[in-house]
Amino acid sequence: MIIVGIDPGYAITGFGVVSYEKNHFQVLDYGAITTKAHTPFEQRLLTIHQQMDVLIERFHPDVMAIEELFFARNTTTAIGTAQARGVVILAAAEANIPVYEYTPMQIKQAVTGYGRADKNQVSQMVKMLLNLEKMPKPDDVTDALAVAICQAHTGINRAFEAVGGYQYGRYGKKEFDL
User: Fold this and answer.
1) Catalytic residues
2) Does some domain include residue 97?
């Protein structure tokens, strides 16, 4: 199974592409889609969408995993990040790729075994699990690889299908009761 993990953002969208077969990871690619400050916002979103299309066309992933957003303070950043997340999910939908979402705590739990692990612990486990020589930079890339690892360890589970956090399932109506 080829998994693309995404840590969404409008300045930096981290991505990690892994193959996961028989409990074995193979890293196919990782990096960041970046947009420059002072670029019109719609152009930043367009760049993210276009680069996601390229990534999808190159690797033909079976599934996409993306981090759920959580912002306690800066709602302006949250809205922009949510819009970037939306264009990433749109790219997956256009390619008919199922999207799964995980909270930061779920990702930490899947990668380290502890849902309150710090960034360094997660980074060290990503490096070890994927047999990387060094930790990827920026942190958004390591986070995206952690999301991909979480998806691999969780498997295809409808309970984690992307629902936007506020629709059916986890936070509202009974599971899949449409």
Assistant:
1) 7, 67, 140
2) yes
